Amino acid sequence: MAYFVAPDSIVRRIWGTADTVLFIFAGAAAEFALNKAVDWLYFTGRLPADPLGRLFSTVDYARRIVFADRVGAEKAIDTIAAIHGAVEKKRGYAIPDWAYRDVLFLLVAYSIKAFEVLERPLTGPEHEEIVAVFCRVGQRMGVPGLPGSYAEWRAAREQHLAQDLALSPHSTDLYRQYRKHLGRPRYQLLRAVQGLVVPASVRIQLHLPDGSWINPAVKFYRLTKRWPASQWAKNAMLPSEYQARIHALDAAPVELAPPRDAAAVAAPRGCPFHKAVPSA
């Protein structure tokens, strides 16, 4: 059977673990709040209204691409592209190419950072594999100007961080929604995790903590995460009604049901980026 992502790929290991996935989306939620294309989140308003629901919708799509066979993965990517196109048509103009690249770049960045914080340093070939997988997603969607190597991605990533991020009223409102839906203790935990994984420029703009106070807990978790008692760490990040879905992220979903928002292609229910980027 042909796969979009090889069964032994490091990308499957990264996206097959609940704690790593949650760290990826914590970091990406911070960075995308600063993206100059964040106004697309507010065109339909679904993500600000339901950030946790959008998180799991995003996870459904990402894991379908990573774990399904090639045909299933390509169908999921085509659905993402169709949803984007439908919202662009409704709004009357296109999402810029650089915004699509930014989304792919931050998924590469936080896949790497989350795994290295929670597991171990990645090797050179593993870096190349992560870049290659997400660039294949972009190529399938028709995104131009994608890097051909990890070194090229790093250079483009630095340019993105310098040019495409800015604090805006949308940034402030998104964080207001994160706090509303998470509650104060989980919101503070989110900010601590974000401070641990985001680049310094993102941390400074969002006034995030540097992550130092949570570092000892993360190190302890790395040593004990195989113990049943360590599951509290995953449960602590999101409200109790999401715990079953969090634990389900640890299962390798080779055969996945269609994502819940697949029917949104004809009449999109959320902003285009909620399928490819996190909400909190």
TrEMBL record:
Domain ER-bound oxygenase mpaB/mpaB'/Rubber oxygenase catalytic: 42-213
InterPro entries: MPAB/Lcp_cat_dom
Short name of one Pfam family: MPAB_Lcp_cat
Listed name of the protein: DUF2236 domain-containing protein
